[in-house]
Amino acid sequence: MPHGDGNRGSTACGALFxxxxxxxxxxxxxxxxxxxxxxxxxxxxADEPQLIGRSTEALxxxxxxxxxxxxxxxxxxxxxxxxxxxxxxxxxxxGTRIESSTALIPGDYVQCGSTRFQIIDTGHDMAGxxxxxxxxxxxxxxxxxxxxxxxxxxxxxxxxGGASAIELAIDRGDLELAxxxxxxxxxxxxxxxDLTFNLLTFARTRGxxxxxGALMPLLEDVAELVRPLAERRRVRLxxxxxxxxxxxxxDCNALHQAVLNLALNAVEAAPSKSGVVRxxxxxxxxxxxxxxxxxDNGPGIEPQRREEVFRPFSSTKGQRGTGLGLAVTMQLVxxxxxxxxxxxxxxxxxxxxxxxxxxxxxxxxxxTGPRPMGTPPDHDxxxxx
Length: 385
Known about the structure:
alpha+beta, 5-stranded mixed β-sheet, single chain, disordered C terminus
């Protein structure tokens, strides 16, 4: 049977031709091939249902024509199925609106609102186009893999150098030589830790979990993690916070990582022995938002590069950087409904300012009617309900 057969729109789940999970050795993906989030790819774990929608527990979507809880993808006895969750605009499989749980096979199209997904089996020989997994995307993937490989290679070389120095020191019983080798080893362990966590965050498909809480413990913890690096570089680190800041809706782990990325960048940018890094926070009464500023007295970032540095795999650190830290920070702050601004610090270097709405992200608003496939994102939309 050809992939994307429109006659299967209402097939009952559990049919023999469903996506058989237990026989698969490759990965199943849900890929956005048309809509506001075109190009995004979500892995489908073999034993974990996935929610399509705009709620915090769903696969992230900026498509306002998708309901908060629109549709659910579920593995059922070796078969992947999709069912509509009484959404405003319905769920379609290969162009047919579904009324019950429907089995899927690789190559099938699932449409929710203005977004069209395709089920991709990375080991399946499918005929026809596979959306954004075209030459441009393959080129981007190749560049991404090349950037990561280059970063890992540099880190491993540093680890090898530090380990060799310590091994030689142990053989000679030379404590001073060991002290020289340990910072090299420690520094590169930190780098591979940062790379791993940023990669996991960059590739994540789950939304943030907001809780109301104070920011000071988060900032103090960031400072404690950064302080060893600051001491090695003899950079003066200070943390200041307005005690009047009320509790803020935030995901502690996500915001912690966003601020930590900025703090690590600042310490590395500040000049050794004379560097200064400030982490401070306050409250903006007019917008009802908390702000966090991380600034340094390093060389700063030229105005023409300030947009570029937030792009994935763009780094100002040369071989020392992975180019993910600022992209991840921007992504995490945006998930909070906030923003990140880059300017020149009064200290002379870079000044990053995070703004986080105290009440969390704004409600995404009403679910709109879907735009016709192929129309641009700014096409007029009618409200469905």
